[in-house]
Each structure stands twice: as structure tokens, then as C-alpha cells.
Design brief:
The chain has about 280 residues and is α/β, with parallel strands linked by helices. The protein has helices spanning about 35-45, 60-65, 70-80, 90-95, 110-115, 120, 140-155, 215-220, 230-240, 260-275, and strands at about 5-10, 30, 35, 50-55, 100-105, 125-130, 135, 155-160, 170-180, 185-190, 200-210, 245-250, 250-255. Strand 9 and strand 10 form a beta hairpin.
Length: about 280
């Protein structure tokens, strides 16, 4: 049995960089070819053995719940036709996963969004996926790679990648000592530092495995940058008290929260689709 069964998806943000497309549609439902971002994330969680899916949503996000539900009218309409195959993946997800939802009524940062999900997680370790960071693992999914790190060390794990120095201000950035190949013991974390103040160019991306004590830590964490409760600040506290690892994952990440990254992801998956379809 997998050691971690639950994965949390903070999905309450407005997606303002994609307005007006996201005015009435959740940004997590933006499609990469014929599949929405959120589905890629859920499939990644499944590959890591996490089939209990919790989503922190907000107003105007009902499409997320509808997507992971059976549409009887649609099923009836295409039953027995050549189009039925297009629902195979989502049917598999609905059959193997359970979904729970709660709402974040105020946008107070990622730390607050994760704390809002406590009611869905309880007191056990869990994964976190930010769906607009679309990751393609090398061999194993990124979250499955991280689950192996957790199984070995039993502490919170964040995914990192090298970014250009002039882009560190967009991310949480870590400093640490290498424990084994690609795995670092975190000594410091800074949320969106100026390039000259960044402790490194190792940036945290939207994949986490968190131990359940993180909820108490977040509760005690004061608002940080932009007046928001930052998960980076809570993890820094956890790193001081216990241990937090940063993992340089094997694979590729697309920043689908930006137009450039979104288009890059579409091109990548289109090339793959062309190869498969021949």
C-alpha cells in the first residue's frame, strides 16, 4: 500500500494572467490539447499512489467538480460510437479516485489555501500539486519521485529546479547542503527574493510532500510578502525545527500560469501526440 494516499490541489486562484478566458472558467480547466490542466495533475497524483484527492476551490469553480463526475447525458449520447474512447482516461480517474472539496473564501496566499485543506487531509502526510505547474517526469512522475524521497527520510519535501538568476524573484528560493544526488537539506528559504538577495538559483515549483504538523506551523505563521500567508515561511520554520528536503526532480516543468509556458506545453504535447498517432 502507498504510504501517502492523499493529495491536495489548491485551486481557488483567479487566473488573472489569462483574462478574459478565465473570467467564467477556472484556470485549472484550461486545456492542453484535449485535457485540462487539473486532469494532468490528478493523473500525476495517481501515479504516485495518491487516489484520495482534495481540492481547495472558490467561487466560480464548479466546473472542477463537474469534470470529475459522471455526465450521464453525455455518456448516453456517445455510447457505442467512436467518440467513446475519448472518455477512457477520465472514466479511469473517476473509478479509482475519491474527490473532496472545500472553499477558500478569501485569497490569503498559498499557505492559507493549504491550511484551508486541513479538513480534507487530517493528520497524515500528503502531496500538494499546483496544477498550473505542469510536470512531465522522466520515467516516474515528479510526485512519485518525491514520494520515494519521503519514504526514505519521512519529512517534508519540496521540488526544485534551477532557474536563471534574473527570474528568482518569481519563486521561493532555497539554500542547502546536498545530502545525496539531487537531494538537499534546506537551511534557508526566501519567498520571491531580489536577484542580489537570493541564496541560490534553486527555485521551489508547485510540488510538495508535507507532514501533517505543517498545519500547526501555518497557523502560527504571520503574513509575509504581499500580506499573504506564505507556505515558504512555514516550511522555513519546519526546516529549523526539524528537517525539510529539496529535491531536484528528473523531468520537465511547464509554467502554465504564463502564456509563454502554456504555449510551450501545448507544443510539447502536440509533438508527442503526433508521434503516437503516427
Amino acid at each position: 500500500m502507498p504510504m501517502i494516499k492523499k493529495c491536495l490541489f489548491p485551486a481557488a486562484g483567479y487566473g488573472t494572467r489569462f483574462l478574459p478566458a478565465t473570467k467564467a472558467m477556472p484556470k485549472e480547466m484550461l486545456p492542453i490539447l484535449n485535457k485540462p490542466l487539473i486532469q494532468y495533475g490528478v493523473e500525476e497524483a495517481m501515479e504516485a499512489g495518491m487516489t484520495n484527492i482534495g481540492m481547495v476551490t472558490g467561487r466560480g469553480k464548479r466546473a472542477l467538480e463537474d469534470h470529475f463526475d459522471v455526465s450521464y447525458e453525455l455518456e448516453h449520447q456517445i455510447s457505442g460510437t467512436s467518440k467513446e474512447k475519448y472518455l477512457a482516461d477520465i472514466r479511469k480517474i473517476i473509478g479509482e479516485c475519491t474527490f473532496s472539496y472545500t472553499r477558500q473564501t478569501e485569497m490569503k496566499g498559498l499557505g492559507h489555501a493549504i491550511l484551508t485543506g486541513e479538513t480534507l487531509i487530517g493528520r497524515e502526510p500528503f502531496g500538494v500539486i499546483l496544477a498550473d505547474d505542469l510536470c512531465v517526469g522522466d520515467g516516474l512522475s515528479v510526485l512519485a519521485q518525491m514520494a520515494r524521497i519521503y519514504a526514505k527520510y519521512r519529512c517534508s519535501v519540496v521540488a526544485i529546479e534551477e532557474v536563471p538568476q534574473d527570474e528568482v524573484h518569481k519563486y521561493g528560493v532555497i539554500a542547502g547542503s546536498e545530502l545525496e544526488d539531487g537531494v538537499y537539506v534546506v537551511s534557508n528559504m526566501v519567498e520571491k527574493p531580489a536577484p542580489e538577495e537570493a541564496p541560490s538559483n534553486l527555485a521551489i515549483i508547485g510540488r510538495y510532500i508535507l507532514t501533517p504538523d505543517i498545519f500547526d506551523v501555518i497557523r502560527a505563521t504571520p503574513p509575509g510578502r504581499n500580506g499573504e500567508i506564505q507556505i515558504t515561511d512555514a516550511l522555513q520554520t519546519q526546516a529549523v525545527k526539524n528537517m525539510v528536503l529539496a529535491y531536484r526532480f528528473k523531468g520537465k516543468r511547464f509554467d502554465c500560469g504564463s502564456v509563454e509556458g502554456f504555449v510551450e506545453a501545448i507544443n510539447h504535447f502536440y509533438q508527442h501526440w503526433k508521434e503516437v498517432e503516427g
